[in-house]
Amino acid sequence: MAKAFDLKDDSVVVVVGSGAGGGTLSNELAQRGIDVVCLEAGPRLDITNIVNDNGTMFSRLSWLDKRIGTGDLNAALPLWVCKTVGGTTVHWAGASLRFQEHEFRARTVYGNIPGANLLDWPITLQELEPFYARAEDKLGVTGTHNIPRLPGNNNFKVMAAGAKRVGYTQVHTGNMAINAESRDGRPACQQIGFCMSGCAIGAKWSTLYTEIPKAESTGHFEIRPDSMVVKINHDASGKVTGVVYADKSGTLQEQKARVVCVAGNSVETPRLLLNSESSKFPNGLANSSGQVGRNYMRHMTGTVYAIMPGRVNFDRGTQMAGIIKDESRHDPSRGFAGGYEMETLPGFGLAGVASNTIAGAWGPGYAKVIEMYDHFAGMWLVGEDLPQSGNGVMLHATEKDKHGMPVPVVHFKDHANDIAMRNHAYKAGTAVYQSLGATQVFELPPFPSTHNMGTCRQSEKAQDGVCNKYGQAHDVANLLISDGSQFTTGGAENPTLTIVALAIRQAEYLANQLSKKEM
Amino acid sequence: MKANAPNRREFLCSTGFVAAGLATSGSVIFAPDYSWALSTTAIDAHTAQTLLLMARQLFPHDRLGDQYYAAVVDAVDKQAASDAALRKLLADGVARLDGARGIRWVELSNGARSAVLKTVEAGEFFSTMRTATINNLYGNPLVCRFFGFEGSSVEHGGYINRGFDDIGWLPNS
Description:
The structure holds two protein chains of two kinds. By secondary structure, chain A is α/β, with parallel strands linked by helices. Chain A has helices spanning 20-31, 54-61, 106-110, 125-139, 154-166, 211-216, 265-275, 349-356, 364-371, 416-434, 496-515, and strands spanning 13-16, 36-39, 68-71, 171-172, 221-224, 228-234, 240-246, 252-256, 259-262, 300-307, 323-324, 340-344, 376-383, 392-400, 406-412, 440-444, 479-481. In chain A, the strands form four sheets. In chain A, strands 4-11-12-13-10-16 form a six-stranded antiparallel β-sheet, covered by helices on one side. Chain B has helices at residues 45-58, 66-80, 84-99, 110-120, 124-137, 141-146, and strands spanning 28-30, 37-39. In chain B, helix 1 (45-58) crosses helix 2 (66-80) and helix 2 (66-80) crosses helix 5. The model of chain B is unreliable at 1-26 (pLDDT under 50). Chain A binds chain B through residues 51-53, 55, 151-154, 157-158, 161, 164-165, 189-194, 200-201, 309-313, 315-317, 347, 349-351, 353-355, 360, 362-364, 366-367, 370-371, 373-375, 436, and chain B through 57-61, 114, 117, 121, 127, 130-131, 134-135, 138-139, 143-144, 147-155, 157-160, 162-171, 173.
């Protein structure tokens, strides 16, 4: 039964955010009998609110509170995440890949790259493997644990045929948190398309209809939608004591807590810590290192679209069930550190293709391109970008949101390594389609919707980062970072599986600490 | 956009948008064959005609009738009804197009119209109209289907039994 906790109940663990990190952590704690209040800034939708319309769902799911982008980012929409129960797991494509061994040791393996703020993770792949296994089982990841893979759609078949021609060998329909067969109360994928507008039948894992209701059924969990946390409070000893949040009416409330776990995605998590400054923590909470808000990573991304000799209908079917993994290795002979994945990506409708294929284009030639929509094939290129100290999140000096919280300013500039990798990836993607006689190929720059990592990174030493290998803040024992913000580096892989694995591991650690009264 | 029967007092023109001298002080435009009509409230007929032609000039598809482009103007007009800044942007933009060659932009040749548009493409008027055209032309479900974006599929059971993997032209090796 869903439960309601009192605002003054200081025995609860407060989790800020209900996505891959917060939603998973909440359920893992509740399953262990620990009382959890999860505060989610967005509303709670029902699965019947998910429709096959890109524009409608963009309005329904998006975090549209003002953010300012600088550097290489769109000024008005620097990045795109969700503000809804389930967070960005409502939107995500479902790609669930483990990091590679060397990606946890990027500083050691890649060396001292000028301009990069590289650091090894304080955790190894070996330590995380059991939690990856549990995460894959939880999400029902295809191609793991004898879970069958999804069938390939037309867009995948084009990519696979081209991959074969250019000599790639690691090609399949991916490791997807989308059921090929019904499993764990979720149905099999019906090849609807629109995965990233939310799965209308729930074949894709989202905390909205998995972790959240499962947590509620324990009797140890309350989700409070429309609750925007603006500040974390602490006592004289420096331990956190609760959070201040604006409820649906905008009224500020305080929820007491014995532990606070922050999982607001890589902009809101550091924004909340920075806004929780006090005389004791003048640079923001948990920020003695000065690393809160720094090292924002969003992956090297790019898209290749191609007009093929025959019809593809690339919108049909699972959007990202297709991958070429050959380029994900670290191979400095290519002229950059780290690697990238090539994953199928459709067009998001005629308007999406018209907006994005060539930015700003118009006229008869471009109209002819759009008329070839059903001949388009597409792939997304996603690889490791390097953490840079200057890329990150700051609070605007004067501009505030409706709750009086400073507007976040997000700054990002590509590192030369990111650009070298992107150029290599464009060529590789283009070669795949040209091998099949593509008549035109387009290289699209990064979209606002990508992955967000870093800004509160894990580190062995307190001076190098914000939290330890369990996501526990170096400076504040009962404060944890529970989302992709804790990533030390980004790897080449879509981050959600790693966020979930870390959340499962964190829940085990936290439960253990609480039972030993060490927190 | 309303597909009303023509009202004679509002009757403006029966020769379509390629004809010169369409502008009047009215605010209703009819298709040459009366198959559709566009009535505006915030923008005048000349502005409406100019924007309609501009939408087609930006993304010209011979196979699409003017009614699909009129829907762009309809959407812009509805937005302009409560947005004075947009009304001014549109009026100033049209005035600039009209002033470029000494005769009204809609009366120019196709090539001259494009050349004039090229001179304003960095401005806000142009980008506003380009975005509005993309959203309201390519966002139209009929236009989407016409060019092969099939739209919502969940109500049809997705594509699991409707061709998600029906590609037939790929080589075997």
